[in-house]
Design a protein that fits this description.
Elements lengths: L4 E8 L2 H8 L18 E4 L2 E4 L5 H15 L5 H10 L7 E6 L4 E10 L2 H12 L10 E7 L11 E8 L3 E4 L2 H6 L5 H6 L10 E2 L6
Parallel strand pairs: 4-9
Antiparallel strand pairs: 1-5, 1-6, 2-3, 4-5, 6-7, 7-8
Helix pairs in contact: 2-4
C-alpha cells in the first residue's frame, strides 16, 4: 500500500519577489551537496540503502535524474503545478498567498514516498530563498501527517530558508517544530472521505 508523505513550502514574503521567483527557472538538485541529511532508507537501484552511506556514484546518478526532472519545468510555477496539483487527489493540495499576513503556502498532503521525488520538490522549494527579504522566513518540509500511529506522524526532513538565497537542513527541536505552518491545512482535511476543493492560486499570482 502506498503511503505518500506531505510536502509543503511556507514563505513569509511580499507578493512581488514571490511572483519573480514563481516565474524563474527552478534550481537544480546538483547545486547542493547536503542531500544525505534527508536521512532514511530508499531504493537506489534494486535495493534499499541508507542515504547516509550510499555510494557517491549512486547518489550522483540519482541527483542527475532529479535534475532531468527539474529541467522539464520552465518555471517554478510550472514545477509547483506539476508536482503538487496535476495528479493531486481532490482536497489534498493547497497553493495560496495570504497578502495580509505575507504568507505563501504550497503543499500536498499526499505528495510522495521516495527519495527522488523528495529531492525534486525540495530543490524547487529551497530555491525560493531568493524571494526572501531581510527578516523574512521560509520552511520546506516532508512530513507524515496521516499514516500509522501518532508517534509516526513526524517530519522526515525540513529546510530553513533564509534571505541571501541560503538554505540548510534542520535538526533537533527545529525539525520537530517544522510542520507548524502546515498543520492548520492538514487538520482541515476531513477523515470522512468527503474532501473540500483544493485551493490553487497560481494563476492569480502575477
Amino acid at each position: 500500500m502506498s503511503e505518500p508523505d506531505a510536502a509543503f513550502l511556507y514563505l513569509q514574503t511580499d507578493r512581488a519577489p514571490l511572483v519573480a521567483w514563481l516565474d524563474a527557472p527552478p534550481s537544480r538538485a546538483t547545486r547542493w551537496n547536503d542531500w544525505r541529511r534527508i536521512g532514511g532508507q530508499y531504493y537506489f537501484g534494486n535495493d534499499p540503502e541508507d542515504v547516509a552511506v550510499v555510494s557517491e556514484d549512486k547518489l550522483r546518478e540519482t541527483l542527475a535524474e532529479c535534475d532531468e526532472q527539474l529541467n522539464r519545468f520552465a518555471t517554478n510555477r510550472d514545477a509547483l503545478q506539476a508536482l503538487l496539483v496535476a495528479y493531486a487527489r481532490p482536497g489534498s493540495s493547497r497553493i495560496a498567498l495570504d497578502p495580509s499576513r505575507r504568507e505563501f503556502i504550497a503543499g500536498n498532503i499526499l505528495y510522495a514516498e521516495n527519495f527522488t521525488e523528495y529531492v525534486v520538490f525540495l530543490a524547487v522549494a529551497r530555491g525560493a530563498a531568493k524571494a526572501l527579504g531581510a527578516g523574512d522566513t521560509g520552511i520546506a518540509a516532508i512530513h507524515n501527517f496521516i499514516w500509522g500511529q501518532e508517534e509516526e506522524h513526524r517530519t522526515l526532513a525540513a529546510l530553513r530558508l533564509e534571505h541571501g538565497d541560503r538554505s540548510e537542513f534542520m535538526a533537533g527541536a527545529a525539525l520537530t517544530a517544522a510542520s507548524t505552518p502546515f498543520r492548520p491545512f492538514a487538520e482541515s482535511i476531513p477523515t470522512n472521505g468527503v474532501s473540500p476543493l483544493s485551493v490553487n492560486q497560481l494563476d492569480e499570482l502575477h
